[in-house]
Each structure stands twice: as structure tokens, then as C-alpha cells.
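Students often ask why inverse folding is considered easier than folding. One informal answer: many sequences map to the same fold, so there is more than one right answer. In these notes we will look at a single instance of the problem. The structure comes first.
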């Protein structure tokens, strides 16, 4: 056993059994729908997830008969509480309208918390394309 009289810095997160986390959801021609989970992961005990990049793209394929919004909703749940990390909202009901968004920062998600991405389309009729991508690193807490 080695004994030291000075503090030793903890290794950076990427040196603590790091593994890559990548998730994506891509679908075209989706009809209007209630809020639906498309990507989900729960962080394992003793781990953390650092979401480093999050991109979202919504494209109106065809016009809805009644206008509404098309949403991409990335969230994290801790216990009974959910919080939006970002939001992509396409409000135009014009064919070929689109909205691109990315998360403004990185998010650390702790053991037992769940990272998930929902979509929602409140129009009547019409179709939408959703493209979501997330890249992160899972590491020892």
C-alpha cells in the first residue's frame, strides 16, 4: 500500500471507463400523433452520462388540414420530475417548412435518471419528418 501526504487529482471523466453513447431517431411521413417517446436511456448505478451534442430537425412534408405545431422534446427525468433540456418547434403549416435546433450546452445525467426524446404533432392531417441525434459519454461516477 502506498501512502501519500498530498491530494491526488481525480482522473478526468473520459479516463474513468468511458464508453460512447449515440442515439438517433429518423422517420419521414409521420402522421399527427400524441406525445411519443422515441429515444430513451436510464443511466446505470455508479455511472454518469454526459450528453455532449444534441441535434434536432423537423420538416413539414405535407400541409395539415388544421394547423398545429410539430415538436421534438428532449428531457431528463429525476424521480417524479421531468425537465426539458431543449425544444424544437415547427409552427409553420407550409409544405417544406423546417426548423433546425441544437442543444446550447452539455448535460450531465446521473445514475437512476432517464434521458429521453419525445415527438408530438398537434396538426390534423399532414405529415412531418423528424431527425434527432444525440452523442454522449457514459463514465464511472
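Output (designed amino acids):
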Amino acid at each position: 500500500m502506498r501512502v501519500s501526504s498530498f491530494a491526488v487529482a481525480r482522473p478526468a471523466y473520459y479516463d474513468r471507463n468511458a464508453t460512447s453513447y449515440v442515439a438517433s431517431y429518423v422517420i419521414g411521413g409521420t402522421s399527427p400523433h400524441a406525445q411519443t417517446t422515441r429515444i430513451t436511456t436510464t443511466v446505470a448505478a455508479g455511472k454518469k452520462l454526459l450528453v455532449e451534442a444534441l441535434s434536432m430537425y423537423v420538416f413539414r412534408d405535407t400541409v395539415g388540414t388544421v394547423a398545429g405545431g410539430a415538436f421534438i422534446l428532449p428531457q431528463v427525468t429525476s424521480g417524479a420530475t421531468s425537465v426539458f433540456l431543449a425544444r424544437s418547434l415547427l409552427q409553420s403549416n407550409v409544405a417544406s417548412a423546417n426548423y433546425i435546433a441544437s442543444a446550447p450546452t452539455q448535460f450531465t445525467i446521473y445514475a437512476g435518471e432517464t434521458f429521453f426524446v419525445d415527438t408530438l404533432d398537434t396538426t390534423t392531417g399532414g405529415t412531418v419528418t423528424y431527425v434527432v441525434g444525440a452523442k454522449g459519454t457514459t463514465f464511472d461516477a
